[in-house]
Write a structure and sequence with these properties.
By secondary structure, the chain is of the alpha+beta class. It folds into 3 domains: about 45-50 and about 245-335, Elongation Factor Tu (Ef-tu), domain 3 (Beta Barrel), CATH 2.40.30.170; about 50-85 and about 215-240, OB fold (Dihydrolipoamide Acetyltransferase, E2P); about 85-210. The chain has 5 helices and 13 strands. Strands 1-8-12-10-9-13 form a 6-stranded antiparallel beta barrel. A 4-stranded antiparallel β-sheet has the order 5-4-2-7. Helix 3 packs antiparallel against helix 4 (about 155-180). The longest helix has about 35 residues, at about 1-35. It is rod-shaped.
């Protein structure tokens, strides 16, 4: 019996020592963790970007041929695409014919009217009158279709403009006929010369449109995206392709205004690019701007809290980084408070 009690006391004593030893080990581990373990780094996530230039032209027409593909690197002045427009080419021929007719009328005013000249002026007037009638019928049809929501307002306005232009052309042709029959005065000669200038201006205007038959690269860069396919129609000013200026890259991230302390324009920071094996890149802040009320955190209490706005920060790499592509995620360590 005495032997059993002795063994029980030894067992209890061993258990106490074991508990003490366990507590000591836990205490030591806590001390080591407090002094040596660091909290995880808190990062702000952002994105890489680059300046994009949209390539478009004044010439409405059909894509005839692309000279580049998506991903190609180009230099300023390289030919990118050819656009053809039979409509504009026809307008050029028409404008040149009107210029020649105006020049002939001016010559007639200077030389005096002949019977042949009078007859020619009359025929031009009749042609203009017939063209006006056709334009009127076209406009009436377009007006009806527009009222039925079949065509757009732009098509209706184009028909109306063509009709008004035909009226003006008929009036001009009639004036030339009257001039031929009545004889040219000094004012008439000046008017004929003015019509020559106006017709020449029309030719120049159409030729300016045809100058955009071939579109060239405005700067060095890489073709990012091509919107239409060969053979498709494009309108005036429609974007045809996007050109990335690879020498103008930046990164952007958004921070709460409470983190702005320690960040200022012109400051050099270090960003991390996970896609490039967590490569560290030096960048310089060049832009800090409030994102507006839509990006503001509103306080929920009348006191003790305050509204916090969000600011956008942009920074450019200090040194060129060819592997940094637009859309890549970047990480920036939050500034310590």
């Amino acid at each position: 019996m005495e032997h059993s009690k002795e063994e029980l006391r030894k067992h209890e004593k061993s258990l106490v020592w074991a508990v003490v030893l366990l507590v000591a080990v836990l205490l030591i581990l806590a001390i080591i963790g407090f002094f040596f373990m660091k909290p995880p780094t808190d990062y702000i996530e952002g994105q890489a970007d680059a300046t994009a230039v949209k390539i478009s032209g004044k010439l409405p027409g059909r894509i005839y041929k692309f000279f580049v593909s998506e991903g190609d690197s180009v230099k300023a002045g390289d030919t990118l695409v050819q656009i053809t427009s039979s409509t504009v080419e026809a307008k050029l021929a028409q404008a040149q014919a009107m210029r020649n007719a105006a020049a002939a009328q001016s010559q007639k005013a200077n030389n005096g009217a002949r019977s042949q000249t009078v007859q020619a002026a009359y025929e031009l007037w009749q042609q203009a009158s017939a063209a006006r009638e056709i334009a009127k019928k076209t406009f009436d049809r377009m007006e009806n279709l527009f009222s039925q929501d079949v065509i757009s307002a732009q098509k209706r306005d184009e028909a109306e403009a063509a009709y008004k232009a035909s009226i003006a052309a008929e009036s001009a042709a009639k004036s030339q006929y009257d001039l031929a029959t009545e004889g040219a005065r000094r004012e008439d000669k000046a008017s004929a010369a003015a019509m020559v200038s106006a017709a020449a201006g029309s030719v120049k205007e159409v030729k300016s449109l045809l100058e955009d038959e071939y579109l060239v690269a405005p700067c060095d860069g890489r073709i990012d995206v091509i919107y239409p396919n060969e053979g498709e129609l494009v309108a005036m000013g429609s974007p045809i392709m996007g050109l990335l200026k690879e020498d103008d890259k930046w990164v952007t991230f958004n921070v709460n205004e409470g983190m702005l302390n320690g960040l200022e324009k012109g400051q050099e920071i270090t960003i991390i690019v996970p896609a490039l094996d967590n490569k560290e890149v030096k960048a310089k802040i060049y832009y800090i701007r409030d994102m507006g009320d839509y990006a503001a955190w509103r306080a929920t209490k009348a006191s003790g809290q305050w509204d916090s706005r969000t600011f956008q920060i942009k920074a450019r790499p200090v040194s060129p980084e060819p592997r940094l592509l637009p859309g890549m995620t970047i990480l920036f360590k939050k500034p310590e408070k």
